[in-house]
Amino acid sequence: MTPREIADLIEAVPYARFIGMRVQILGDEMTGVLPFKESNIGNPLLPALHGGVIGAFMEVTAIVQLSIDEPQERMPRSVDVSIDYLRSGRPMDTFARAHVNRVGRRIANVQVEAWQEERARPIAALRGHFMLTPAEA
Amino acid sequence: MARRVNADEPPINALKPERLHSPQARALGIELVSLEPQVVLKIPYREDLVGNPETGVIAGGVVTTLLDTTCGWATAVALKQLTSIATLDLRIDYMRPSAPGKPIYATADCYKLTHSIAFLRALAYDVDPSDPVAAAQATFMLDSNAGRREGANLGPPARPAKGDA
Lengths: 137, 165
Hints:
heterodimer; A: alpha+beta; Thiol Ester Dehydrase, Chain A; 6-stranded antiparallel sheet; 3 helices; 25% helix; 38% strand; globular; B: alpha+beta; two-stranded antiparallel ribbon; 18% helix; 32% strand
């Protein structure tokens, strides 16, 4: 599958549609895009995006990047994720990029950063382990 | 331990559940099952929350949000007040896929509260609490809105970066 085909597959996942997530592919670079959506708000006073949504968005970004880097038989499954919240998620579009740190036979380690206006000022970071089912090439 | 109590914030029991839910919790259909003796939240199964269309299993992200929300509630209960709190870090172990068609429940325990931080453990399960779907460990910052007005996030970002998290 091409990166775009993988991205289309993920964008069609019901939960990805629920939070309104998109996947942008430019050459060999993939960016998760989470357009602002009222229902993704967690703190209505500030207002701020729900931390769970930001975490989920980064987790899906990790899964897309991993599927592009390492062709999989099935979608990689999350084993654990560790999320650091650095700034509150403002009511605007959010972006995320993932980097696959290591791929073993069964497990991959991936890190993700999410930002809004400036990539140099991330709002959250995720590090996680994912279970692989490599496609027979 | 002198923790700041803000008289403007209503006590937790005075609030009706519908007022307490954030737009995201409402959109997910998260329900409050109980606050005491244990905080229990529930999310009914829905097709549009599925993460893997082949298996019909609810997305990990839904469990993430449910656990985060449950930890927030456990913090509010421990504080006996609804003040502004913010997740600092959240670690989740996904032990097994949840059962398709079944609601997911979550419980959280605030095992330590300091002046500014709450420490929590949480579990998510579908049928049997002793066979959890996922477990979480989290820390929350208390009084996270301190010094920031309502709608603060609508203006330009605070500069220099002096802790706008």
